[in-house]
Design goal:
β6 and β7 form a beta hairpin. It contains 6 helices and 7 strands. With 288 residues, it is of the alpha+beta class. 19% of the residues are buried.
């Protein structure tokens, strides 16, 4: 009976400790009932550790939020000057023009990374506001594919039924951000000669948007972790990347009440599938 009285709260302590994550640090507390004094003291010490970890996470999130804000302004100014230099640089040599192009690409990459960090920080602080509206998904996808073709210089094949018009509840800008992120990811991890495919189709009351590449693929053991922050697949560690892109993609998709799934095979390619519930377009009055 004595051993049982000691072991039971320890097992309870162990099971509750397994439930602790970065997302629930400020809510998870261990409260043992009828535990020996020593075990109760252990649980109190554990709760104090959780309090300190929660405070540290809050400070980290505030720091990332503040730094992201501070970096956006100088990056925007830098990008503007680089664009202006290219537009007005009639006397630039090919080598100088190439150097400015490279600087512009790197500035854009850092800007995207800062935006990703800011989105994650806002999400952690409960301040990521995604306003949903009825949008024509086909128009958004077509615009995004056209922009990606120009910026990535890649062949992107858009597949959808003729006269295909579907309304979903989402955010136009955020959906573009998600699709561009997935298309850039597909371009980064596939050969430039291989085509990227974007496919739209209906599955019951859901619209499925698939982004398909024929690239390096993702090992099976990594598939469950690719949406984790800063995680990078073991077969692409030699490539540039922050490991933030896909975590932001899932964050935004879920904020728009959609889902994202992935299937992949090494050396065969990867398919990301976005799913959104379709809606009946509202009838606008003459005044609207």
């Amino acid at each position: 009976v004595l051993v049982s009285r000691i072991v039971r709260p320890l097992l309870q302590l162990n099971s509750m400790a397994d439930l602790v994550t970065a997302d629930n640090l400020n809510r998870m507390r261990i409260d043992l009932v009828d535990a020996p004094v020593e075990v109760g003291q252990l649980s109190n010490a554990f709760n104090r550790v959780l309090d300190r970890l929660s405070d540290a996470m809050d400070h980290q999130r505030q720091f990332v939020d503040a730094v992201s804000h501070e970096l956006r302004t100088p990056l925007t100014i830098l990008t503007g000057y680089l664009k202006r230099a290219l537009r007005r640089g009639d006397n630039l040599t090919d080598q100088q023009r190439k150097a400015i192009d490279t600087a512009q690409e790197e500035a854009a990459r850092i800007t995207r990374m800062v935006s990703d960090l800011l989105d994650l920080a806002r999400s952690d602080n409960g301040r990521l506001a995604v306003v949903l509206d009825q949008i024509c998904a086909v128009e958004v996808v077509q615009e995004t594919v056209a922009a990606a073709k120009a910026s990535l210089s890649r062949r992107i094949n858009l597949i959808m039924p003729d006269s295909f018009k579907v309304c979903i509840q989402a955010n136009r800008d955020r959906l573009k951000q998600v699709l561009l992120n997935l298309l850039e990811n597909a371009a980064k991890y596939s050969d430039p000669s291989r085509e990227i495919t974007v496919e739209l189709k209906l599955d019951g009351s859901n619209l499925l948007i698939s982004v398909i590449d024929r690239g390096v693929g993702i090992p099976k053991e990594d598939l469950g972790k690719i949406f984790d922050r800063f995680y990078r697949s073991s077969n692409v560690l030699d490539q540039q990347g922050s490991g933030l892109g896909l975590s932001v993609v899932r964050l935004l998709v879920e904020a728009m009440e959609g889902t994202i799934a992935v299937t992949s095979e090494v050396e065969a390619g990867t398919t990301f599938v976005l799913s959104f519930l379709t809606c009946v377009p509202r009838q606008l009055s003459v005044a609207e």
